[in-house]
Specification:
Elements lengths: L18 H4 L1 H25 L1 H7 L4 H28 L2 H19 L2 H4 L24 H4 L5 H30 L3 H26 L25 H17 L14 H8 L3 H32 L3 H30 L3 H18 L34 E3 L4 E2 L9 E3 L2 E5 L9 E5 L9 H18 L1 H13 L4 H17 L1 H12 L1 E7 L2 E8 L1 H33 L1
Antiparallel strand pairs: 1-2, 1-5, 3-4, 4-5, 6-7
């Protein structure tokens, strides 16, 4: 008796495979597990610890932005080829092998912790006082070699990007072919990556509260600006688990698409005659780009505007905001499936979501009262101190003003965490005093309101992704070029969205910086931002992106009606 096969499974498949392996729901579970781990690594762990890596390896903020974007750059180059070859081959094996390699590479991402020695911040309190012969310079010669690890990190990111291509390209096309519930399944598949990102933020946020060396050689706490958490722990654990997750995918059967043109050039020629596809691919690219740019720098934004610690920012973003994004992705797929939307219906739906998100862009006007930061350019009271911006060691004066360092406050002496005879701090008796650390941040509830509204905003933003992807797939599916169509769509997503947007957002952050920490005279890390300028930049970037999408959706609708 012939064993029963799920009626929605695409034929032909490998007849020797056991029945359970042919069921679309099994494929959904295995592929979603891989998508979850990819989200943990790329969109969660790497992003949540980037400011710590920046501090530990003395990297510039723009260099860290390249670390994020390098993952997408390599995919722009190889995505169509992998989609074409993988579509003709055994798709689950391509995905499984790629995920196993990703696990190994992720494990290797944490290795630099063991090759750099213990973390030794600049000694506090003794070398950064006001003195005419102040020699409180950074360890330019001793620590400059740390920055070469940027090359290592970028290489690991690019390798992870290369081996991740089969999952995101073949995985979506595979689900499209094995089930009639493709919109919902794809929403769950992509939503799993967002859940993974939330988990990655939670893991990263938790480990950042642990000292980098577990038993630190220098006594500083998590509130110190010199604090470096155990960024590496998550990569080791997640790397091993990813290798294990990759094994079940290898058991899935190959799915073949009938009547598909054999040659790559034939498929490319057919695709080039579908203008609505290209407009929708551009729309989804900008949507993904905005999501990638915002989430890459949102932890830093929360720290700057709402005074959260690095660990708190990662946890809040992961547990609340990205949960909203996950619900949006699954919800978008559900709407397409529930109402049986065609391409024109999908365009109308995404148009409405874009208008809603233009309204949500104004949430970036929320902020907290700024800290009172000394205008160091006009501090004539410390001109004789020979201060520099290489050592960022903020102190809070008794005038409730934060100074870049004891030297800039004009402090001549100290006892542990207290500084005295500070010429720049006004006092009723002689010179004022200061204590180590920034002044206490103002009481403010705007941060909680922002995170809650941002979660709703992300829900609507991500709800447009799955429908737009479905619109692209519906167009190319009729032409029997699903795999190459999905591959080219992801090239658009990487090239126009995920690769440039983190760099664009990073430049806007850079332009809002008011006080830079330097290294041997070069600007390295921003110590303080102009929050108002930063808010307007974020608002304009989001509103303009949504406005451009409305225009692109109009063109897509016009050409789709013309060619239906």
């Amino acid at each position: 008796m012939t064993p029963s096969v799920d009626p929605i499974a695409v034929q032909p498949v490998n007849r020797s495979a056991s029945t359970w392996r042919k069921r679309p729901f099994v494929a959904l579970i295995f592929l979603s597990a891989c998508s979850f781990m990819q989200g943990v690594i790329i969109n969660g762990l790497v992003v949540s610890v980037q400011t710590t890596i920046e501090r530990r390896f003395r990297l510039k903020s723009t260099e860290v932005a390249w670390l994020i974007s390098s993952f997408h750059l390599i995919q722009c180059i190889f995505q169509p080829l992998v989609a074409y070859l993988g579509g003709k081959g055994h798709q689950p094996r391509w995905i499984g092998i790629g995920m196993f390699i990703m696990g190994v590479v992720t494990f290797m991402f944490g290795i630099p912790h063991f090759t750099t020695g213990d973390y030794e911040p600049v000694e506090l309190g003794t070398t950064n006082l006001c003195s005419e012969s102040n020699n409180a310079t950074t360890q330019c010669d001793n620590d400059s070699g740390l920055r070469y690890y940027l090359i290592y990190f970028i290489a690991m990111q690019m390798l992870n990007g290369l081996v991740n291509i089969p999952l995101i390209t073949l995985g979506i096309a595979y689900l499209q072919q094995v089930t009639s519930n493709a919109p919902l399944y794809q929403g769950i598949f992509l939503g799993s990556a967002t859940i993974g990102a939330a988990a990655g933020y939670a893991i990263g946020g938790s480990t950042l509260n642990v000292p980098a060396d577990i038993i630190p050689s220098v006594s500083i706490d998590v509130t110190s600006t010199l604090w470096v958490g155990a960024w590496w722990i998550g990569f080791l654990a997640v790397g091993v688990f990813t290798c294990l997750i990759s094994i079940p995918v290898l058991l899935l059967p190959k799915v073949q698409s009938e009547n598909q043109p054999k040659r790559f050039s034939e498929q490319a020629k057919i695709l080039s005659k579908l203008p609505a596809y290209f407009f929708l691919a551009t729309v989804v690219s900008l949507e993904y780009g905005t999501f990638s740019g915002m989430t890459a720098l949102l932890p830093k934004y929360l720290q700057t505007n709402f005074y959260y610690s690095a660990g708190e920012a990662s946890l809040f973003l992961g547990l609340l905001a990205l949960t909203g994004a996950m619900l949006g992705q699954i919800g978008g797929g559900f709407i397409v499936k529930k109402f049986g939307l065609d391409v024109e219906g999908i365009i109308k739906l995404v148009f409405v979501f874009s208008i809603v998100n233009i309204g949500f862009s104004f949430l970036f006007l929320l902020d907290c009262p700024p800290l009172r930061i000394a205008n160091h350019a006009n501090l004539s009271c410390s001109n004789q101190c020979e201060c520099n911006f290489d050592q960022f060691e903020p102190v809070c004066g008794q005038d409730n003003v934060t100074y870049f360092s004891p030297c800039f406050a004009g402090c001549l002496s100290n006892e542990t965490e207290d500084y005295y005879n500070c010429s720049c701090i006004q006092s009723s008796t002689n010179n004022g005093s200061a204590t180590r650390g920034e002044c206490e941040s103002p009481n403010c509830t705007s941060g909680a309101i922002f995170v809650g509204l941002f979660a709703i905003s992300l829900c609507f933003h991500m709800a447009s992704l799955v429908p737009t992807i479905q619109g692209c797939i519906k167009i190319v599916e009729k032409k029997e070029i699903t795999y190459i169509g999905v591959g080219v769509m992801w090239v658009f997503i990487r090239l126009l969205g995920m690769f440039p947007f983190p760099l664009i957002y990073s430049e806007f952050f850079k332009s809002a910086c008011t006080i830079w920490q330097t290294e041997c005279g070069d600007q390295v890390t921003c110590a303080y931002y102009d929050n108002k300028m930063l808010n307007m930049a974020m608002l304009l970037l989001l509103a303009v992106q949504k406005g451009v999408n409305l225009v692109l959706l109009g063109f897509a609708y016009f050409f789709q009606r013309r060619h239906r």
